[in-house]
Amino acid sequence: MSFAYAQSPLNRRADLRGNVTELAIHHGLPTSKCVHVAGDAVRMAQGSLDVAMPAATKEIVFLGLDQQGHAWFATQDNPGDSHVSLRTLMIEGSLPAAELSILAQARSLILWHAAHGFCAQCGKPTSMQDAGYRRQCQGCGASHFPRTDPVVIMAVCKDNKTLLGRQAAWPEGMYSTLAGFVEPGETLEQAAHREVMEEVGVRLSAVSYVASQPWPFPASLMVGLIAEAETETLTIDTSEIEAAQWFEAAELKQMLDHTHPKGWHCSRPDAIAWHLAQAALKKISGSFASPQ
Ligand SMILES: [Zn+2]
Fold first, then answer.
1. What 3-state DSSP class applies to 225?
2. What's the predicted TM-score (pTM) here?
């Protein structure tokens, strides 16, 4: 499967993060690259990523080495006219998939640093350590690590139908797989059961893993699942979603192909939701074709 943000070519080389001497050498090499992140946007130069290395005094995060052995870094930047949002870059397809994936890592890390300048335990300032993979409190010495927030996203199937919903803020006519954050102390399977029950009142039986996608807004990991429903009646929680309904295979195919007569459609192919809807179509079509 090939979706946005999931095709990083970098070897993260965690072993180098504490090696100040080696990282300083990479910093000085003309082949090293640094992306400049401001909020959810990145600095561009003439249609390409601006990868100029900043001054040696600027705080930078080490992202890893590419297949040529060239180092990639990221740094925080002030917003400006030459910045373009990651969402726009994804929609326009203006960067290679590999670079977009590097930006997902950069954006999540830079945002975490920007929001964690002070210790959550004692309130004193923290400083960047391990080339950007840890912050240490200058008061109590506590270490703080970048986080990734798992989100379960699931295609729910029953017989020859798949369940999709929509949120009011989405583009008109777009339906997608249900999703929600995994809560503390919960397994992925439990989160899937709970979210589907909360949002549409449907009870699941089997839940299985399909694939995952980093989603850097700000630091999520979309865990794609396919689930079997035990029940079919929908009780929609309108505080979470605007609508939900079961779609049979023929209709789901039209939505994936953008040929539905009502203009209903699935999310963009960059998103794991689209791939899950495709997996669901395969599953329910199989169910359709099975001998009576
Ligand atoms: Zn502290």
1. strand
2. 0.91
